[in-house]
Structures are given as C-alpha cells and as structure tokens.
Amino acid sequence: xxxxxxxxxxxxRSNVDFGLVTWLHIAILDEDDSGPIEKxxxxxxxxxxHVGKVLDNEESLHDVxxxxxxxxxxxxxxxxxxxxxWFKPELAExxxxxxxxxxxxxxxxxxxxxxIELAVVRNLADTLGQGCELVVVxxxxxxxxxxxxxxxFEMSTPAEKGHGYMHLNLAYRSSFVDDEENPGxxxxxxxxxxxxxxxxx
Length: 201
Fold this sequence. Notes:
By secondary structure, the protein is α+β, with helices and mostly antiparallel strands. It is built from six helices and seven strands; from the N terminus they run βββααααβαβαββ. The protein has a seven-stranded mixed sheet. It is globular, with a radius of gyration of 17 Å.
C-alpha cells in the first residue's frame, strides 16, 4: 500500500495569487493480489502553505490565504498572529516555517476501519510536512476529534455546529501506525516525543 502525490508548482515569481500555496492531490493505492498492479482505493487533498516564503516576499499572509480559498482564510485567525503574520507564540516551537493543511482523506468502504487515513496523514507529516510547524485537519464531529487524537492532534477550536479544527505540532513525533502482523491494517501506538522537542512548562 502506498500513496502517490501530484502537484502543480509554478516557476514564475510568487505573489499573493500565485505560488505561495501548493495544493497536493494524493492517490491512495493498493497492490492487486496477483502482482504489483496498483489500484486506487482512496484519495486525499492537502495544501502546503509556504508561510516562510510569504514573509520573505513581504506579502500579507491573510491576503494569500484569502485569495486561495475560504477554507484557508479561516485558518488565519486561529493559527497566526495578526501583528507578525507568524504562528501564534503558543503554537510555535521553531520546527518549521510552513503549515500543512489536510483538507480531506477518503478510502473506499471496503477499506474502512483499517486506520489507513491515519497512516496517510502520518506519512504526509513525516515527509512533505518536515518543513512545517503544524499539520491541521478539519473536524466535523466528536468522532473525528477522537479519531485524529490518536495521532496526537489537539483541538484548536471547539467543533461547534459540526465544524472545527485540530492541529499537530511537529515538534513532537506523532504516533506510529503500522500493524506488521496484519498487512493492510494499521495500529496506533502512544506518542513518542522527538529528541528535538522543547519541554512545556
């Protein structure tokens, strides 16, 4: 089982409308029993918000998010300081300059209940999210909150009226999701702090 990520990255000079958010389209793939023939079993969509590049270009982060979509604009007041256009102090651990937003993760019904979604998000965080301070997911129910908490996500906002956000600070290593005894399934183990973490007081 694997994921395939595709993105369009412009080569021109970045500005508010161009090149400061990279949307990622992710295919979740399984291998056919008869051999290494990949078949799609789900999909995901995510955005890399290049916060550091926005500041380097002396652009307005709010304007960048607003120009992209209402979904990203909604993140600004939750995660960023309006005076500095940087992550709010209580969220910044100094591990990265960007934000990874997981817009959606879906698998086909036959593959539900295996924690594949957790494995997808964990691996996106460990690879494409290495330059990020936070990973953010939207939640629409108490069940969503419980599910993502297995990876160490914390509530950023109350899920009022079926809508809210959770974040994972990448100063901390997220839970492992791998079930070697049951291929195609994933299990969750306790969070393990990274050696590079700071101690909260």
